[in-house]
Design goal:
The protein has about 130 residues and is of the alpha+beta class. Helix content is about 40%, strand content about 25%. The protein has a single domain, classed as 2-Layer Sandwich (Alpha-Beta Plaits), CATH 3.30.70. Strands 4-5-3-6 form a four-stranded antiparallel sheet, covered by helices on one side. The radius of gyration is 18 Å and the shape is elongated.
Length: about 130
């Protein structure tokens, strides 16, 4: 399969990627063993449902790292909200001991950074050069 950097819709060409990180409440180290494996499965299921491609995933005992690619109509907040809401509900149903350890599975906060193929400096230089042409 040939790697295609860009995706296309009927009105746009895009390459939108986000690095997303979030933690369990109180940074508890509960994402281990069966919970870790099930969390990865659930994230892949939800990604398929909402049309997000998980490029890379790493689940640490006390936080989750994802590199996702999506279309430009989806905000990082929406993607995180979908992942956190779905996985919290499912994991707390399947692993009842999580309910006694944590009032909610995830913290309300998260980290999101856009990731592009070219750097910020290159984009700024390109824009500055436009008037000179």
């Amino acid at each position: 399969m040939v790697y295609q950097r860009w995706k296309r819709s009927n009105k746009s060409v895009y390459n939108v990627g986000y690095h997303l990180i979030w933690c369990p409440k109180y940074r508890r180290q509960v994402l281990v063993g069966e919970i870790e494996m099930r969390l990865k499965e659930l994230l892949n299921i939800k990604a398929g449902e909402i049309g997000v491609n998980i490029e890379k995933m790493e689940v640490m005992p006390d936080h989750v790292h994802l590199f996702v690619k999506t279309d430009p109509t989806m905000s990082p907040h929406f993607v995180i909200q979908q992942f956190k809401g779905y996985t919290s509900r499912m994991l707390r149903q399947e692993f009842p001991h999580l309910k006694s350890k944590l009032p909610t599975l995830w913290t309300r906060s998260y980290y999101a950074e856009s990731v592009g193929h070219i750097s910020e400096a290159v984009v700024k230089k390109y824009i500055e050069e436009q008037k000179k042409v």
